[in-house]
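Worked problem 6 (solution included).
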Amino acid sequence: MQEQYWSKFAQTYDVNQTYAVGDDLLKAMTAVVDDLSELGEVVEFGCGTGYFTKTIVQKATTVVATDLSDELLEVTKARFKDNPNITTQKENCMQTSFPAQRFDTVFMANVIHIIEDPLKALQESHRILKSGGTLVIVSFTNAGMTWLETIKLAFRFLKTWGRPPRYARSFSVDKLGSLLQTAGFTVDKAQLLGNTTKAVYIIGKKA
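Solution. The predicted structure is:
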């Protein structure tokens, strides 16, 4: 069901996203990602159309961009067809085909709040990260938003995406940080981004 839901937006994904949350928030999210460095070998969960992939790859040696949707992966593959450092692969972030301690960095943008079992995805991230590896999450939230802005966001979401996936939820910085710790990570950085619309930005480290 998740795959079918997102696949139908393959050609309008970026436009829908910008309309729903606003260009200012996306720029703020991109800016914190752009501040990262030396990410090494990266796996990206929920790459969508590669919106954040283009920034991550500048900080990485290689990126494996993954998603559940074949249609979204086709858009990403075409977008980066001339970049040998980016490969695409269909994966479920809650249970991947990757061996343990495979990557230096796991990156998730706008994924953790829309999957069935966030803790399972975090535990899988911990499994496939090398010792000392990094988990980077940036994800939309209504935490810290006013009631009016939350209603406006819901309206824009319904207008562009329709009814949200039944697993959709909103994480506060503290709640997501606690979940990372439960999965075995040490929280290295955690903050709320944005003005009217918001996103949680958090970095975890594997011992």
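Discussion: Helices lie at 2-7, 13-21, 23-34, 53-56, 70-79, 118-128, 147-161, 173-182.
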